[in-house]
Amino acid sequence: MDIMLFHSVYGLRPAVHAAAERLRAAGHQVHVPDLFEGQTAETVEEGMALKDSIGRDELLKRAVQAAAPHSESGLVYAGFSFGGSVAQNLALGDERARGLLLLHGTSDIADNASAPDLPVQLHVAEPDPFESDDWLNTWYLRMQRIGADVEIYRYPGAGHVYTDPDLPDYDAAAAKQTWKVAIGFLATL
């Protein structure tokens, strides 16, 4: 499977490269674009400021340019937190998308979106400061309405980006379970 993996607002950190290597070891080809062009952040607040300084339109443009050379045969889009929102936007705009793997984040869904039979898997902390229960319920129902085949996995007590061992949110047990389930999901696509 060809996977386009997008980083969080922390930027392209070692954990993203480690995730890509984990997916490669499972037999996938993984592309890891750097939407922040070498810049990283130490805190969520710094990352949000960095994201905002680049701007949503520019970040989506960079993501589309990174994915375009690989999308001909159909990509699985994946991402961490903010990167999940980028991945979701690209997957819902790409009729050849083979799947969507969201780690710690989702995005709004356009009223005219359509994703017939798109396999989607979301892994998220419970509770999550950026993905409230009300939001996730609404997101799930909207994804179903546009035709996506959605699975949600919740991890009680985990922090927001719990798969990154270099962040305070890290939860080893939740991260291990997430990768086990996610690799199983990718094997079905």
Q: Total number of helical segments?
A: 6
In sequence order, what are the helices and strands, one letter per element? EHEHHEHEEHEH
Point out poorly predicted stretches. Answer: none
* CATH-assigned fold name: Rossmann fold
Q: Main sheet, how many strands, which sense, barrel?
A: 6 strands, parallel
Shape: globular
Fraction in helix: 25-40%
Q: Return the CATH architecture.
A: 3-Layer(aba) Sandwich
Q: How many structural units, i.e. domains?
A: 1
The CATH class assignment is Alpha Beta
CATH superfamily: Alpha/Beta hydrolase fold, catalytic domain
Instruction: Tell me the strand percentage band.
Output: 15-25%
Spell out the key features of this protein.
189 residues, Rossmann fold, alpha/beta, globular, 6-stranded parallel beta sheet
If you had to describe this structure to a student in words, what would you say it looks like?
There is one protein chain. By secondary structure, the chain is α/β, with parallel strands linked by helices. It has one domain: Rossmann fold (3-Layer(aba) Sandwich). It is globular. The model has no long low-confidence stretch (mean pLDDT 97).
